[in-house]
Amino acid sequence: MKPYWMALFLIPFMSLTGALRAADPGKTTAPGSDDLSRYLAIKTRPGESAVVRDASGRTLATARSSGNNSVVFRDAAGRTLGTATTWGGRTVFRDAAGRTAWTANPSANGQNITYHDAAGRTQRTASTSGGSVTFRDAAGRTTSTLRQNNSSITARDSSGRTQSTSWTSGGKPAAPAKR
Hints:
Elements: H1 2-21, H2 35-43, E1 48-54, E2 59-65, E3 70-75, E4 80-87, E5 90-95, E6 100-106, E7 112-117, E8 122-129, E9 132-137, E10 142-149, E11 152-157, E12 162-170
Antiparallel strand pairs: 1-2, 1-12, 2-3, 3-4, 4-5, 5-6, 6-7, 7-8, 8-9, 9-10, 10-11, 11-12
């Protein structure tokens, strides 16, 4: 009788844990090295602050831009994960120890960005089209797509599942073009 009772207890329990994990993707987002962080490192304006959350809504990190063309990434506990600094269009991301983790170089038309690792190998490309940004790996396979809606950004993996989201606040409006 015991094995029968145990099976009746475990089936609902396993169903419940499966439902709880449904929003938790197998591949966790790593702030500073995921596609959403790469996008925020380049697009965050001075004074803006972004909160990065995983698919289930847990805060993973914050990205805070300062006036010196830098974006500082911190984990949920406030520890520095890394810093992205932009010079003349090129962005360099350094980890918490100050080592270069990746660089980003925009194309002349600004529609494409190529990401390289510290050794100079191409890791990702990002292309903008119709309000969304598509990230591809070095082999050209889609890794994620980002879509912005007002102050929030949703990152979805290649199968369409939500990986992470970001909500941005603060910041200065873009400066008007000089004549």
